[in-house]
Every structure is written in C-alpha cells, then in structure tokens.
Amino acid sequence: MSNIPKIVILGAGYGGIMAAQRLQKELNYNEADVTLVSKHDYHYFTTHLHMPAAGTDAIDNARVSISKLVDEFKIDTVKSTVQEIRIEDKKVILEDGTLSYDYLVIGVGGEVETFGIPGMTENAFFIRSINSVRVICEHIEHQFALYKQDETRADRLNFVVGGAGFTGIEFVGELSDRIPQLCKQFDVDPSLVNIYNIEAAPTALPGFDPALVEYAMNVLKKKGVTFKLATAIKECTPEGVLLATDEEIKAATVVWTGGVRGNSMIEKAGIEAMRGRVKVDEHLRAPGHDNIFIVGDNSLVINPEIDRPYPPTAQMAMQQGPVVASNIVASIRNQPLKKFTYENKGTVASLGKGQAIGVVGKTKLTGFWAAQLKKVIDIRWLFIIGGFSLAFKKGKFF
Ligand code: FAD
Ligand code: NAD
Questions:
Q1: In a domain, 115, yes or no
Q2: How does pLDDT run across 360-377, given as a tens digit for each residue?
Q3: 346 Cα distance to chain centroid
Q4: Does the CB atom of residue 11 touch ligand 1 within 6 A?
Q5: pLDDT bracket for residue 130 (50, 70, 90)
Q6: Which of 111, 170, 174, 199 is the catalytic position?
Q7: By residue range, what is the domain housing residue 244?
Q8: Are 182 and 272 within one domain?
Q9: Which residue's C-alpha comes closest to atom 39 of ligand 2?
C-alpha cells in the first residue's frame, strides 16, 4: 500500500473544483493521492439554476461533466454521496464505501434553511441542484396543463416565491419571462397568472443598494411580479402559504428562497460550526484541525470592515479553492501556509432577459450593461474551469 499523503475533496462545486484543479497543477508526480468525491458526475453552476428552474434555459447549460474539468490521471473521481465524516478515524463514510484521508477539503455546499417554518420542507420546492430545479420546471408546466382541465382551480396559476433575497429575485425575473410563453402554449389568459414574491424584511434584497433595489422592483413589477414586503411566511401548506398577517395565499407552487445554511454533516462530525458553517482560520482550516480545510458555503469568513461574516457566494468559494490547495501542498512540504484574503469583485443580479442590477467597486449598473456584465461573469467561470472550449460551448454571448 502506498504511504504518500491522501487528500480527499468532498464536493465538486465552485470551491471543490478549484481546489482539485490547483492541486493537479501544483503537486509533483506521486507526491500525494487526490480523490474528488461528489454526489453527481457533473459540476453544476448553482449560480445559473434559477434559469432551468423557470424553464428559460436548458438544464445542460448549467452543468458540465467532471471528467472534462479534471485530469483523471492525476485525480481519482468518485461519484458517491458522503454520509458521515469520522474525524477521529480520518475517514469519510460514503453511501457505498469508505475513504481514508490525511488531508480533507470539505466543500459540499449549503443546505436550505427553513427556520423550522411548519410545512416548508414538505410542501415547498427549492432551487438547490440540477435535480431539484428539473422538478420545479416540470411542476410549473404541469400546473398549466392541469388548469386547462379544471379551470375552477385558480390556485394552479398562482406562484409564491418565499424570500426576496438574490435567489428569489433572480428566480421571479426568469419566471415572469417564462409565463407569457406558457400562457401561449396552454391557451391561458396571462391576466389570470399571479407571481407573489414575499419578503419578511421591509425591503427586497435587504442590505443592498436602495436605488438598485428600487430599480429591480420596478422592472419586476412591470413584468407582473407582486411584492409583499415586511410580511413573513409563517406556514406552508399543501394549499399554499399562510402569512404572519394571517392572510392565506392559495398557490399550487411555492418555491422557498428564504435562506441557506451550511451542511449539517459538519456539525454531526463534531466540527465547531454556526448553522453548519465553520469559522475557518486565516489559512481556511477548521479550528483545532490542521488537516481539515473548508471552502465555500461550508465556511464562514469574517469581513474585517464590518466584523460580520461575508455572505456565502460562488465568488468566495472560487477564491478559497486555490488557497486551500496551495496550503495542503505547503503542509505536505512543511512550508509556510498562505493567508486567505477575500477580494470582493462586485455583485450582479439578473432580473430576467436583458435586465440586471449590479455594483462593481463604486460603480452602479442597471439594465442592459448590468445584464452584459452578468454574462461576462458567467463566461469567466466557464473559462477558468474549462478554458476557451467550455466558454464557447456553454457561454451565452448574446
Ligand atoms: P456548491 O457549488 O453548492 O457545490 C457543492 C457540491 O457538493 C456539489 O457538487 C454537490 O453535488 C456536492 N455535494 C453536496 N452534498 C454532497 C454529499 N453529501 N456527498 C457528496 N457530494 C455532495 N453566488 C455568486 O457569487 N454569484 C451569483 O451570481 C450567485 N447566484 C446564485 C444563484 C442561485 C439561484 C443560487 C441558489 C445561488 C447563487 N449564488 C451565487 C451562491 C453560490 O451558488 C454558492 O455560494 C456556491 O455555489 C457555493 O459553492 P460551494 O463550492 O460551497 O458549493
Ligand atoms: P438570502 O438569505 O440572501 O435571502 C433570503 C431572503 O428571505 C431574505 O431577504 C430574508 O429576509 C427572507 N426571508 C427569510 N425568512 C422569511 C420568511 N419567513 N418569509 C418571507 N421572507 C423570508 O438567501 P438567498 O437569496 O438564497 O442567497 C443565498 C446566498 O447566495 C447569499 O449569500 C447570496 O448573496 C448568494 N446569491 C448571490 C446571487 C448573486 O450574486 N447574483 C444570487 C443568488 C444568491
């Protein structure tokens, strides 16, 4: 049996893929064994999922096979679901086997946070993975078909999106683009369709630039979205949602975009975490565990300017992956580790076709130019992980 160090990466998301690609570049031949484990044999662009969820883009534009991204002569890939991390034994328990590690990278992404709202887990849909958005898209189309069979069921044409954070806003932008097409396809009068975006905070996109929020809401209202602000959802039932005001909205489709947390597997492993997110040290290690590195939505990094955590984003995950890889290589070689510093490159949110809002540095962007910037950001990711060929194949240039 080989006694070179074993590196196991859990999750092929933004953080995991970047870590794997950097390891394959930095490690010398036979310096370590690297295994990348992921639930699926493809990497999916979580940042793109609101589109196939609404049916405004094809599923295959939101994923790419892992074998196209990593060199399988250098990295072993395992398609399996991690079930448990056993820190004391340095083992990872998969649904169909066990892996031992000397160094572990945890990048299994976040989970939906429902805050214990009754019925949410059972009755709502979530924008989390390729499989979850496929179900949302099919369900929406099915409601139109069912409505045509029984036009007394007006609730089939009501769509509730719970939470007007970035995911909720991007999804209602796409959904409002898709509705006219579905109405045409199923002979439905568009005035019968309602999209409600319900937000507990007094404003949509809480904390974001107020002028851009106002712009976004105006664009979305014009496309038929009804906002209910300062109104929390307190229950989700098979018939719809119940609001804190006791108002009931009957809807056959409820999509919950009310929040994310880290992964419960981390807490179960006994790693200190806050809602499944580990407050990593400056080298991105779990406190007290020098061989366990955490990336992406599983990590928690404090913004020193405001002494509060940075929001969990793909941008954060993709910056962390290479640093984690370099730090594992440095640990193996007994060299000093790099400090991680997050560089905020800006935030851009899509509002559907040809529309977006964004802030880059001190510059605010709206409309066409913001939408172009969003495309550039998406294409940049494709280029980083897959070079020109992936960028040309999956990138949306128009
Ligand atoms: P993920 O990208 O979520 O990947 C996790 C990986 O782990 C997946 O490959 C999954 O299959 C695998 N996995 C999960 N559980 C297991 C298991 N038990 N066993 C094995 N494998 C497992 N952020 C931005 O910066 N910009 C944006 O524009 C943006 N848009 C977004 C739009 C939407 C609709 C959503 C939902 C999120 C968006 N985000 C955006 C946030 C961003 O997508 C996440 O912060 C980012 O995906 C986190 O990356 P990650 O590497 O931690 O995990
Ligand atoms: P979020 O936590 O940012 O937003 C959830 C929203 O739901 C909040 O506004 C919250 O007030 C609201 N909410 C919570 N409970 C509620 C209730 N009971 N009733 C009604 N509203 C309720 O979650 P998200 O939008 O999924 O974003 C997750 C992360 O992904 C964030 O860090 C975000 O920045 C990132 N993201 C970024 C982009 C982008 O940059 N374009 C897009 C999507 C997501």
A1: no
A2: 999 999 999 999 999 999
A3: 17
A4: yes
A5: very high
A6: 170
A7: 120-258
A8: no
A9: 349
